[in-house]
Amino acid sequence: MYILTFDVEEWFHILDNDSTKTSNEWKHFESRIHPNIERIFRILKENNTKATFFCLGWMAEIYPEVIKEIVNQGFEIGSHTQMHQLVYEQTPKEFRNEVERSVKTLEDITGIKVKYFRAPGFSITEHTKWALEILAGQGIEIDCSVFPAPRAHGGFPSYGEPFPSIIRYDGIEIKELPINYTTVIGKPVIFSGGGYFRLFPYCLVKRWTKQSDYVMVYLHPRDFDPDQPVIKELSLFRKFKSYVGLKGAEEKLGDWLSDFEFVDVNRAVKIIDWEKAPVIEL
Fold first, then answer.
1. Which of 2, 94, 169, 275 has a Cα at 20 to 30 A from 260?
2. 3-class DSSP state for residue 53?
3. Residue 261 φ/ψ, nearest 5 degrees
4. What are phi and psi for residue 183, nearest 5 degrees?
5. Residue 44 host element (H or E)
6. Tens of pLDDT along 102-147?
């Protein structure tokens, strides 16, 4: 099963960087969301493929027409929080407000119940399990925030195998569609989204996809925009991660969608036999 998702945010929504951290900084950057989201619509139409879009509440407030167009194009939406902040840098109260506000904003614009969620930077970690309880309390049924391997933003390496699971925590139950990885020389290698997808040549992405029973793709509008400005405050390593492979990403995604059949979260949830899915007690 191959699932296609996009995180709807601006090109400057880069985490762990003071110059792009809050809306106080964001107002100084140009907007590129309209041409970037139109590019994604075109790619999906050309390949007759559905996808799920995890949208920032901030984006919905500033550009409600973008959210409406996602729905008008026949795609489903989920929450990506309100202000694109890392979960583990927030208190439970702050996180609850983030989710509540984003869900209300998206539902008010679309008139559709929001059931899906993804945390910025996959920042629900072993130390922020409480976030799952908050999500359930806000009506979220499917979470896509677990990164079951070490990473810069924490990761959740104790989660176990990267397959759809049912998480039970403190009396709540929530379905989880985690990020997947392949194993190379005994080490987990992520390849299905963001800088990882842009970095690896398509021959490797194709091979690893064929070898995988489950792939969760996570991409962003900025991943296909080679003309976006460079944020000068980033370190050389962060610049590499943020800008590598932008020129070839559109063609690479087109090849991927042509070679494999991808579904959105709604279709995936219907296909999965949840009675046989692993149950993870946290």
1. 275
2. strand
3. -95, 115
4. -115, 125
5. helix 33-46
6. 999 999 999 999 999 999 999 999 999 999 999 999 999 999 999 9
pLDDT tens-place string over residues 91-102: 999 999 999 999
Domain containing 169 — which CATH number? 3.20.20.370
Residue 233: both structure tokens together: 């405050």
Q: In a 10 Å sphere around its CB, with 0-12 CB exposed, 13-18 middle and 19+ buried, how is residue 121 labelled?
A: buried
Could you give the C-alpha distances from 223 to 185, 197, 243, in angstroms and in order?
28, 9, 8
Give 139-170 pLDDT, tens digit per residue.
Answer: 999 999 999 987 776 688 888 889 999 999 99
d(CA 51, CA 111): 19
Q: Where are the beta strands (DSSP E) in the chain?
A: 2-8, 52-55, 76-79, 116-117, 142-143, 165-169, 172-176, 182-184, 187-189, 215-219, 279-281
The residue to which tokens 């008139």 are assigned: 111
